[in-house]
Each structure stands twice: as C-alpha cells, then as structure tokens.
Design a protein that fits this description.
The complex is a heterodimer of chains A (429) and B (527). Chain A is built from 18 helices and eleven strands. In chain A, strand 5 and strand 6 form a beta hairpin. In chain A, helix 15 runs antiparallel to helix 16. The radius of gyration of chain A is 22 Å and the shape is globular. The relative contact order of chain A is 0.11. Chain B is of the alpha+beta class and 527 residues long. In chain B, a hairpin with a 2-residue loop joins strand 14 and strand 15. Chain B has three domains: 89 residues, Ubiquitin-like (UB roll) (Roll); 109 residues, 2-Layer Sandwich (Alpha-Beta Plaits); 240 residues, Rossmann fold (3-Layer(aba) Sandwich). The two termini of chain B are 34 Å apart. Chain B is 27% helix and 19% strand. The chains are: A alpha/beta (429), B alpha+beta (527). At the A-B interface, helix 13 and helix 14 of A face helix 2 of B.
Chain lengths: 429, 527
C-alpha cells in the first residue's frame, strides 16, 4: 500500500521545510486558504468520515462543526500531543519525522473553525520532540505558513507549544485544557463541552496529532479518495503501534480494517520464540483484551473492534504469548492507572488503588476466591460513574481479564503462588 | 417553569435549579458531599448520581439542570447501587475513627452510611493509606487528611468566597491530600466556615475539639451580636452554656457564612463577670439586694427627682447592643412613666476593631445601631446629656447596656457625667460603668432573650432565648416593665411579642411588622 502518514520512510529529510514543500507540502493549506471556504473544509473532512485518532474515534468534521459560527470570543485549537497511553508511540514518530504535516493540519483546522491561536500540548517527556516541533514551527513562521497574513491570504495564526509535567490525565481533553490554563489537570464536567467553553472559557477544538496529520491529505486528495481506504465508516490510513511478545515490534502504517491476525503474524513477524499467542490488547492498555481465538478473527477498524467487544483506542496493539502471567499483566496495568488517576472523582481515586492492592495479593498467591468477585464489583462500580473515562480505562481490562483468564486467577489462589514463577523466583519476588 | 418527575412526584422548578434543588422541592433528598449551594459545582464526589430516563448512564444531580418532562429516579436499583458503591469507595481509606472524631453525630459519612450503604467493609484495615493527622493549618482550624474525602469544598471556599486560596489539593490519586502551601498557614477572617462546610471530620475547630459531643447540643436560631451585619446564626448550647456559633443561611444578610470574630464572640457572653443579682451602692461597695427592693428603691428615687427637679432631670442612654424591644420599652418608659424626653444612643466600637470589608465584617460592632435609629433615639444625644449635667438640669441617668466608662474613658466619663447624682445601670456584665453606678440591675445577654435586632441594611431579624439568664438576672424588658409598674401602677407588656406589637403600633419604621411573622430570614423595616 502507498505510504501516506509515514511518507518519511520514502522521502529522506521530510522533516525539513524545503523537502516537505518540495514534495507537495503546504499545497493543502494554500487550497484551504484560497480555494475553499471554512464551511467547505469542514464538509470535506465530515464527508471523509475521518474519526479522531486519540482514542474516542469521534468524527472530526462533526466536532469542528460544533464550534459556534459567530463566536464573539476567540476560538482556539488544541493539538493533543500528550501521547501517554501505554503501548502507544505514533505521535512521537510523526513529530520527529513529519512535523510540517502536523503544522499544516493545524493551520487547515484553524482556518476551518476560525481559530487564530493554536496550542500544541506535548507530554512532559517529549523534550526532544518539542525541540523538533519548535524548530519546524519557526521554519513555518519564517516562510509565512504561520503568523500574520499567511501567504497573503489575510488569515492570521499563532502556534504555541506547551510541554506538560508528566501526567497521563493531561491527555484527557478537558484535563489538557485545565493544565494548559496553568491549573491542576482535573478533567471538567461536561456540559459545557470544549466546543462551547474550552481553553480560557472560549470555544475550543481538541484534536490528536494523528488526526490532524490526516487533514492535509484529505484536503489534497478529497473525501472520496480517503473513504476508499479501509471501511467506509471508519476509513483512512492508520498508524499501528505493535509491541509485546512479537518478533518485529514497531510502528506500522496500514489501512483501517487490516486483519489483526495479519498484523501479528505477517507484518509483525509472528510471536516471539515461536510461542503460542495468549492475548492481545488492541488499543492501548485501557481496553478489553482479546483472547488468541478472538484476536485472529478481528479486523482493525473502530467499528469492527467494537463489535468484537473491545475498542481500538489509540491502536497500541500489545501482544502477549503463552508464558505471560495474566494476573501479573493486569497488576501492571492496574499499577499504571492507580498511579495516574488524578484523584478527583471518588470511584476512580479509591477504586484504582483498591484494584491494584487486590491484584498484588492475588498475584502473590495470597488472594481468596471472593476477591475475584470484589475485583469485578469494584471495576463495575467505577465504570461510567466518573467525570472522565480513566476509571473505565482500568475497569475494562479488569472486566475482561478476570472472566477470560479466570483459571489463571484461580490457580494463583489454589497454589498460593504464581504458577508462572518457579518457587525460588516467587520467593525472590 | 419546567415540570419534571422525581421519584414519581411531579414538581415544578425554576429553570436555573439543579436536580438536588428540585428534588428538595419535591421532598426528596439526593445525598451529596461536594455540592454546596454557595460554591461552584465540581461534581467530584459522585454521591448524587441519579438515573434519568433516556440518559445512557447515571448523571450527577448537582450538575444537571431541570428540564421539561425529565423523569428522575433516585431510588432505582441503578441509583442505589451507585450510592452504595460511592460510599464503599469513600470508606476504603477512611480511618473510621468515629469514637474519637468530633464530627461524629453530624458527619455525612456516618449519616449516608446508615441511609444508603450499611454493608460490611471488603477492604482490609491494615492496607489503608495513611496521611497527616491533627495538622494545625492556622486560623483555629485543624486538619485530618485521612478523614478527608477530597470534596474540595474548603479549597473552593478559599478560592471563591474569601479569594485567599490558602488550601489546595496536593499529590495525585488516592494519595491526594488537602494542605496549605509550606509555611503559609490559613490567614483570613472567615476560616471557620470551612469547618462548617466540611461534610466529614477532616476540618475541625480548634476551640471546639474534644469539648462536647454534638448530639448533646441544642440549637437556637439567633443573630450574631458581633457587628451591625447581624449574621443569622444558630446558637449551639447545652445546659445553659454556649459551645459554638454556626452560621444560619439568610440570603439577604450573610448567605451561608459568618466571620471568625463573630463565631468566637460567645465566650464573652458567659464569662465570670456576668451579673446574677441586683446591686446597690452602700459605703462605696456594691452589695446584693432582692429585685423587689431594687425596684422600689429606683422608683422612689425617680419619683423624688421628678418632684424636685422635674421629669427632664432624668435621662436614659440605650446602647446599640440592646434589642429593638429593650430600646422601645425604655423609650416608652421615659415618655409615659417619667415624662422625660432625654434619651440618647451609645453606639461604640472598640478602637482597633476590624473595619468594613467586602464580605460581611462591619466596622460598627453593634448589632442594633440601625434599630435604635429607626426608633428615633438620637445617635448624637450624649453631648446634649453631658451639657445638661454641666448645667445642673440632669441629675439621674438610666443606662441600658451602655458601658459609658469604657466608651468614653474614665477621665472623660467623670468630666462629663461625674456630676450626676444617681445612676441606674442595666447590664449583663459587671463592667466599669457598674462600678460607678448607684444601682446595678442584672439583665439577660442577647442569647437569653426573645426579641429582634435590625441590621445596618434595615433587616429586622428574630433572636430567641436559648436558655434562661444566670441567677436572678431578668430580661431587660421585664426589668423595665417592673420599674414602670412601680412608677405608675400600669401593667406594661413584658413578652417580646407584646412589646414588639406595641412598637409596631407606635413606631412608623416598624409598621406592619410582627415578631412572630419575621420568619427565619427576617423582614425589612417599613421605612
């Protein structure tokens, strides 16, 4: 398949402005500025069926259309580069190798929604990436792709980058906005939605980097072309982050709807050491796990993964082979969410820690049978009852791991130790 | 107004109300911790989750506005499961130290556990997170971080009401804790309010801690006498002693709050210097005498002066700490039984007292200065009285709560009023003016009387007797009525209701008002 989002593999030095511009770069921005009305840009993106790549898969054009047309307040665009979902590493490559595509996407999106200020919120650890992006932004300013009266169109746009301080919750769009405003990243109650009251109380669009990277291609080649890639309702090129017990882990660009089986066994070169597959989390650690039997039947697009009982999220595909202790794996996931819960809402603040503590006991062989019920109860009670979906992000793995690998959980309880560790390793642990 | 159904009850509610408020109208309680009507909505406790028909998942009632045709269930299986779950989560890391917690008895964790949870804990005691305990965060507030449920009412109060922002949430997840910034203690005049609004035992009052179990306390609605704002309060008392003042909601006066000065003003009302018996000057000493004798003595002195020097040889000074009824009764006594028109107000605030601020505190530390003005008792009458003393016309003074020596300073008092022949002082305390008096009558402090104060904006609010005055002390209006009867044989009303009724009949400013009809929020003066 033609590489679209990962053109950098074919074009050396694509991160440099002259190379980017020499390969059709900023053509889409010119088109958006001189040939299209904002309304037409929004409609083109709407028609392309582009869906948000940050995890929620909300139709991007529809999100843009929620911005009030006659807003008396300024409109802001926030580019979410707080890429923190475990198993996800697409945005960092895009920033490193194709930053101008992001900037072009930002500029087109701003033109569409009438924003003249854009903020890019990068995760705290993206120090190098911020330098790269800042350098690219400086180049774009120097060549009038950003700044006042862009390319003589009369359209002004200022782009700022902001680096977080290392909190997962800042990737949640309203947590991001709070953090951007200099506050504790406590996600906000909705309504009001960011489209009405976002950054600094003004209408705001928050889009993921990968979402925005798709935009120049859609403007250049049209919605119909875009829809021809993958399933019509969930189309487009997609970056898959393949990790875990796999021979060729890495970032792969594939069309939406690509079979998970082929991703693992063909693209990914199969399971490490020729072992058997035990489970796959398809969308980053926040989502239900597929067993080996389920995994080989799934196609990787938003709707197919959902129909199969999980979510594609950020497409952080984590592969686990037969030697994985699923209790230990879930414990690791719980540790992450316990550590990252902002602590605002009661169920998440208290539930994540409770679940981790239960899993520590279970993994160490000190659990009781009723703990399995408690575990699922706690997860169920967290789900859907909080301001943001961080609680759900631990609830979903718990509620899939426990029933799907129940025999492993029970084995820990019955044996009084982890069956995947030798007794000496258990003692060392 | 939108019509909606809550637990099968149809209710009409203003469009700007949320579901907690609308439910209250329908007589349905929706449990909540973080929601407080005087603060912004954060929706973090999740205790108020309710089921709304056609909504895909449970919604928090505090952040949901009423809408036409909305059907809300607060007791459905889904809602009940969520309520139980939130309580289970809240109690996971809570120390459950109710036996030694001051909040016990007025704790929303206890109340809601009994109402909505009642399941045994599934969390091992040994695994609870530990945080700071008994931290003195300043301004008389103590913090227990383990008991805290992180509802953020206190941080919002300091952010939004006092705008001092001393408290913040630190750390993350279940390590979250409320704290001050290092070295910057709470320092504002409204800190006690965070103790009131803390739904659990995390914030307690230093002065109140370990003093009294709250279930022994009785509550009497009253008004704070600390300044002319007249914040509505509840007096919390037990066996004739006040243990604390708590603000009572009054939208037109103090909203939900009160200042710390007012909150901590009650010890002065029950100290060692309270008077318990009428006193009379004998050989440079004040000695006790029974009321009968005290009244007869005063009445005969007044009659003598009236006969010898005329009615205007007798004057009264009413302090702005007096109730409307006391001031009116004395004004009437002067007019009808004595025939004097010499009456003046003492409205004095100690030097160095706090000035007006943007929130509640007023520089005038008298709760009824406006009331006396409404009764047309001259505010600047003291100079006239002093002049009349100097010219020899004024011989006798009746001082109602007025501590003239303290207000004027001893030297100035002697210079102006030292030539008086006779002084009768009605006071709750043995103050310096009493030392100069020929007769001292013990009267009830304001927590011990029925009546009313008029605040500086003209709002007349009820005060109620929480308990009887100490010893032989009488309500001020009772003492005045007895004196009046001794003077002219006329029965004067001695109940606050009756005095107020005559006041409403006689005084244009109080026209149309009645004590019983003042209600919990009071009523504005007629003029």
């Amino acid at each position: 398949m033609e590489r679209i989002l990962t053109r950098w593999l074919d074009i050396p030095d694509l991160r440099k402005l002259d190379v980017y511009a020499g390969n059709g770069g900023y053509k889409a921005l010119r088109k958006a500025l001189f040939e299209m009305k904002p309304e037409e840009i929004i409609n083109e993106v709407k028609n392309s069926n582009l869906r948000g790549r940050g995890g929620a898969a909300f139709p991007t054009g529809v999100k843009w259309s929620f911005i009030p047309k006659d807003s008396k307040k300024p409109v802001y665009l926030c580019c979410n580069a707080d890429e923190s979902e475990p198993g996800t590493f697409a945005n960092r490559y895009e920033i490193e190798f194709d930053p101008h595509c992001i900037i072009e996407g930002i500029a087109i999106a701003c033109r569409a929604v009438g924003a003249h200020t854009a903020y890019t919120y990068l995760r705290g650890e993206f120090t190098v990436q911020k330098r790269i992006l800042d350098a690219a932004i400086a180049e774009a300013y120097a060549n009038n792709y950003l700044g006042k009266n862009i390319l003589g169109s009369g359209f002004d746009l200022e782009v700022f980058t902001h680096r977080g301080a290392g909190a997962y919750i800042c990737g949640e769009e309203t947590g991001l906005l709070e953090s951007l405003e200099g506050k504790r990243a406590y996600p906000r109650n909705r309504p009001p939605f960011p489209a009405i009251q976002g950054a600094f109380g003004c209408p705001t669009v928050v889009n993921n980097i990968e979402t925005l990277s798709n935009v120049p291609h859609i403007i250049n080649r049209g919605a119909d072309w875009y829809k021809s890639i993958g399933p019509e309702k969930s189309p487009g090129p997609k970056l898959f982050c393949l990790s875990g017990h796999i021979n060729k882990p890495g970032l792969y660009e594939l069309p939406m709807g690509f079979p998970l089986k082929d991703l693992i066994y063909d693209v990914g070169g199969g399971i490490l050491d020729g072992k058997a597959l035990k489970g796959v989390i398809p969308g980053g650690s926040s989502f239900p796990i597929f067993t080996a039997e389920e995994a080989v039947k799934v196609n990787m697009d938003f709707d197919s993964v959902r129909a199969a009982g999980s979510l594609m999220g950020t497409a952080g595909v984590m592969v686990m082979h037969e030697d994985t202790c699923m209790v230990d794996a879930l414990k690791t996931i719980a540790h992450f969410y316990h550590h990252e819960s902002c602590g605002q809402c009661t169920p998440c603040r208290e539930g994540c820690g409770w679940i981790e503590k239960l899993l520590i006991e279970l993994e160490a062989g000190r659990g009781k049978m009723e703990d399995l019920k408690t575990l699922v109860d706690a997860a169920t009670n967290m789900e859907g009852n909080t301001i943001c979906v961080l609680a759900d992000s631990l609830s979903m793995p718990v509620k899939s791991f426990v029933p799907k690998y129940r025999d492993e959980f029970e084995a820990h309880i019955k044996l009084g130790r982890c069956p995947f560790k030798t007794s000496s390793a258990q003692q060392a642990a | 107004m939108p019509k909606l159904t809550i637990d099968g009850k149809e209710v009409e509610a203003g469009a700007d109300l949320n579901l907690i408020q609308a439910a209250e109208l329908a007589g349905v309680e929706i449990p909540h911790y973080c929601y407080h009507p005087g603060l912004t909505i954060v929706g973090n406790c999740r205790m108020c989750l309710v089921e709304i028909e056609k909504a895909p998942k449970l919604q928090i009632a505090c952040n949901t506005r009423v809408a036409e045709g909305m059907v809300v269930h607060t007791k459905s299986d889904k809602a009940k499961t969520a309520q139980k779950a939130v309580l289970e989560f809240l109690l996971i890391n809570h120390p459950i130290d109710c036996p030694i917690c001051d909040q016990a008895g007025e704790c929303k964790l206890q109340d809601y556990y009994m109402d909505y949870d009642q399941q045994p804990s599934r969390f091992p005691l040994a695994e609870k997170n530990h945080k700071g305990k008994a931290i003195d965060i300043g301004s008389g507030v103590m913090l227990d971080q383990e008991r805290c449920i992180l509802c953020a009412r206190c941080t919002r109060f300091f952010d939004e009401v006092t705008k001092t922002s001393e408290l913040a949430i630190f750390e993350r997840g279940d390590h979250n804790r409320i704290d001050i910034n290092p070295g910057q203690p709470v320092n504002n005049k409204y800190a006690g309010n965070v103790v009131d609004i803390c739904p659990v035992g995390a914030l307690t009052e230093k002065e109140f801690r370990f003093r009294m179990r709250v279930w022994y306390l009785h509550r009497t609605a009253s008004v704070c006498g600390g300044c002319e704002r007249g914040c509505a309060i509840d007096i919390h008392h037990h066996r004739g002693r006040i243990y604390r003042f708590k603000p009572r909601f009054n939208p037109g006066v103090n909203s939900y709050w009160m200042c710390d000065e007012g909150r901590h003003s009650f010890p002065a009302l029950q100290n060692e210097t309270r008077l318990t018996s009428p006193l009379v000057q004998a050989k440079d000493q004040l000695v006790m005498e029974p009321w009968g004798e005290a009244i007869r003595r005063a009445a005969s002195i007044i009659a003598d002066y009236k006969r010898q020097y005329g009615p205007n040889s007798i004057a009264a000074v009413v302090d702005a700490q007096s109730s409307n009824e006391e001031a009116f009764a004395l004004k009437q006594l002067m007019k009808t039984a004595i025939g004097s028109d010499r009456i003046a107000t003492l409205s004095w605030s100690p030097p160095g007292a706090s000035g007006d601020d943007d929130l509640l505190i007023r520089a005038n530390k008298n709760p009824n200065a406006r009331g006396l003005a409404a009764l047309a008792i001259p505010a600047d009458g003291l100079d006239g009285l002093a002049a009349a003393v100097a010219s020899g016309e004024l011989k006798m003074l009746i001082a109602m709560r007025a501590d003239l020596v303290r207000a004027l300073g001893e030297e100035e008092f002697v210079r102006r009023f030292g030539a008086l022949d006779y002084m009768l002082v009605l006071s709750a305390d043995a103050n310096e003016t009493c030392q100069m008096a020929n007769q001292v009558w013990p009267i009830a402090a304001y927590p011990e009387i029925d009546g009313s104060f008029t605040n500086f904006k003209g709002r007349v609010q009820r005060i109620n007797a929480a308990f009887p005055p100490p010893g032989a002390a009488l309500a001020g209006i009772e003492a005045i009525a007895r004196l009046g009867h001794a003077l002219d044989g006329v029965d004067r009303p001695s109940s606050a209701n009756a005095v107020f009724a005559s006041m409403a009949a006689a005084e244009p400013a109080f026209k149309g008002l009645s004590l019983a009809a003042l209600g919990e929020h009071g009523a504005d003066l007629a003029s």
